[in-house]
Amino acid sequence: MKEKIKKVFHKDNIQWVNEHYILFCLYxxxxxxxxxxxxxxxxxxxxxxxVIQRPVMFVFxxxxxxxxxxxxxxxxxxxxxxxxxxxxxxxxxxxxGILLCFRTTPFAAVDFLLITSAVRIVKLYLSPIVxxxxxxxxxxxxxxxxxxxxxxxxxxxxxxxxxTLAIAVIYTFSLIGINRLLxxxxxATENFSNLADAYHDYGFPYCFANSIINLGMExxxxxxxxxxxNVVQDSLNAPFPVNPLEPGMGNGVxxxxxxxxxIGAAPSGKDPEPTGEPEGENDQPDNAQxxxxxxxxxxxxxxxxxxxxxxxxxxxxxxxPFYRELTGQxxxxxxxxxxxxxxxxxxxxxxxxxxxxxxxxxxxxxxKTILKSTTCESIANNLKAxxxxxxxxxxxxxxxxxxxxxxxxxxxxxxxxxxxxxxxERNVNGFAKDEILVGEILKAMDSTQxxxxxxxxxxxxxxxxxSQRLDDEEPIFIRYTDLSMEYAWSYYVNQIAExxxxxxxxxxxxxxxxxxxxxxxxxxxxxxxxxxxxxxxGGVLTATEYVIWDNIGLQKNDINLEAYxxxxxxxxxxxxxxxxxxxxxxSCMWDEDYLNKLEVLQYDMLYGxxxxxxxxxxxxxxxxxxxxxxxxxxxxxxxxxxxxxxxxTGFNEYSHVCVNGETQKTTYVEPGMLLIENSQLAAGDxxxxxxxxxxxxxxxETAAYVCx
Length: 708
Known about the structure:
By secondary structure, this protein is of the alpha/beta class. 39% of the residues lie in helices and 14% in strands. It contains 21 helices and 20 strands. It has a 9-stranded mixed beta sheet, sandwiched between helices. Strands 14, 15, 18, 19 and 20 form a 5-stranded antiparallel beta sheet that branches. Strands 12-13-17-16 form a 4-stranded antiparallel beta sheet, with no helix packed on it. Strand 4, helix 16 (403-409) and strand 5 (414-416) form a beta-alpha-beta unit. The longest helix is centred in the last third of the chain and has 28 residues, at 486-513.
């Protein structure tokens, strides 16, 4: 082996590479591209099949890789440069392959923006030893490349740096031109309605490069003030420009809607076929019994769907009997969501805003991009214009997907993450059980006198789904044709069975409360279980279910919906038209240019000139209040041996004492008492209590208490 290695690195071979560098890079690019596709597809055979079926895209992907390698021509130590680039590109491909073991969404550039969120859950998927080995392998490979590169003979010929850079620029523009030609010919596309399918059809380098370049929304070709005005006046029957903060924008509130054909699923990238007209006998809600506007509650159930729709999966008992009972009595249907196995925040985005994620760049998370810097129309903002108070609740980290920032941009008044919850029970996988949400939802409603919009996000059924039994007391037994997935399905099914009991408890509590309520229950995406389209009923992996329970006598009116249409459907049931996109979904669903109208309005609101609002964004970020209960410091007592007791209200396991701005090691004793060790505490010192998550980000802090 040693002799073979010496032969490979013989000075004659190294000299040939130095002198014929571009030719070597071409061979290397073809080889690396095959490796990347093999890793992405978890099979060399599938990668070879891809080469045979899509040879043009395979070669084009290799030419993309060649651009990165070819820049090494400007260096004398071009072999070292080449090795480092090879390792980094290979690392991206391996990352993609690893991620595809745990989710169906491939690795995209936007994942770098999610790195802080990913670090917190990666331990659920990979052991610390594996994580360490991966990091060590990458670091060792780079160091080895540098060391070997320094020992390799340098290129001795004349460097034509300016000429090489000029060629690189020309080559880049040539690639762009070829790309446009491939798009025109239908060989490639730049709009990926399904990221997993795009990576499969067009290859990893092309799609990953697109995810770097193609962020946000492209300006529609026909975007103009005149087009915006026509859509508003002719399609929405609203004045132009629009003041969305004025109650009853459009046809008014609680007056009923005469949308042609009602609301229904429209064709899009996620729903391959239109689902037809509504199935209910009465398209319009009868609000005569409401006596006023109802409270509206959304509960986004983590990875929830009907497991009976999975082929080959059998149960000892129905895991979701109450949910099934609700779907038999109340409005229900399939819900087409943006992704499979992951992407909770993107389903939230479509539900909350009524915007279609298909119009964004591949793999984008608006929570991590545009919504970090701008406000926009949302169901929270729409209902607040009618006097509602908007609450968000999530029994997981408040900073996950930057919700502690984004929910302010979306108009919520309060946000209660797990850092502000009490007596949280966890499942065997470490996630908070969803039953905690019942009390939190009621607490949010109790905190106001008027109507509430509550958006609750559950977490209990989140993966990683185990490959071995974690709990010997799982009451529901399952059998599955793929024996390797039985433990995973057993865990999942028993978690959603507990969610079913949580839903029953919530509905019972709302019934006893007696206030008019619309409760919307839906799954954010299917769980990641290595499912293929043929494994699920209907053959669509981006379909979950929803149901709208109410206590105001609405008629059952089943319909399949896209996620971005659900909020408009719920408001329609309540007789509410507030919101520009709400009216668009309610009144233009069956227009041939419905999606074009949605795209141009969506672009104008987020990236355009906001012509629809007269050029000014009318929405302001809220002063988001974290938690409902007040957290206070009322007294500080210094005891012997440097022990300090901090007294107050609202403390929990996430409460940390800060002295003069410095966080102290804190022991939680009870809701009214915390303990620290600080023998230096003196009169005049300032003590506060901060709520700090597992990522060490401070979410909130009490008023200062000055020690006496």
